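Q: I have two molecules that I believe assemble together. Could you output structure tokens for the complex as a whole instead of separate predictions?
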Amino acid sequence: GAGVSQSPRYKVAKRGQDVALRCDPISGHVSLFWYQQALGQGPEFLTYFQNEAQLDKSGLPSDRFFAERPEGSVSTLKIQRTQQEDSAVYLCASSPPRVEQYFGPGTRLTVT
Amino acid sequence: DAKTTQPNSMESNEEEPVHLPCNHSTISGTDYIHWYRQLPSQGPEYVIHGLTSNVNNRMASLAIAEDRKSSTLILHRATLRDAAVYYCILISNSNSGYALNFGKGTSLLVTP
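A: Yes, here they are, computed for all two components at once.
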């Protein structure tokens, strides 16, 4: 079946613009995660959903970052007033509860 | 969270076995040892996991030391497609939904 998909794959934003990144998880997967990966680094945890409930948002770097999953399937990561330090690859992963995660290809965000 | 230590990089010849080490001296009794890998320009993918016993699957083998303070991921015959960053990750029940703490991983270079 289809894997995790993310859109757009590439996004260029001018500093100060708002962006929205979309994640379509594997159908039926309860858990959904967002990670941020800076160049040359490993992915870092941002936030976790179980169905529509956001159970952990401890990794979100500032209040400019907001994530939602209103119907327990598709999720959107929104970044307001983007800054240059927000430039990174944003990865989405989904899984059944407490088993291995399946990752999407990521969205590469470049803030100019 | 218990930490893992991996070499920054390793090199292997194609069609030879590769042993990727991971030290986790502060592992607790309920921590699972997971391995993920990330091919260039892709999201991470699950490789294998274990608790105490050695594990085998179609991708690799995981050898876990008797005291569980270290483990080794074994690729039996490296191919060029195995060139990736390999992450050794400890997961406990306290991790939010099994959120992953990637670290920097080991960059594996496979030469023909």
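A: One point stands out. Chain B is about 0% helix and 45% strand.
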